[in-house]
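INFO  loader      accepted 1 record
INFO  loader      residues=94
INFO  predictor   begin
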Amino acid sequence: MLIVAGHLLTDPADRDALVAEGTRAVALARSAPGCLDFALTADTLDRARVNVFERWASEEELLAFRGSGPDGDTAARILGADVRRYAISSVGDA
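INFO  predictor   done
INFO  writer      dumping tokens
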């Protein structure tokens, strides 16, 4: 299992629009084979921050969905990012 988690930074005036436009990507990801969870959310404290959380059954399924990443217009709106991939070897109840 893989978890992709972190955040993107954008212009605070553009953050909510960026999250709203991400709805299509979230819907596509959640219907993709191997996607166990996918979310892009506005941070509750930082107006420039978009939180990213993804959970995938395998790296192959993640890479099949990911393709080439965001289009040029979306990528230009991302001013910074700290998003990491975590390989999970076991899972238990919280």
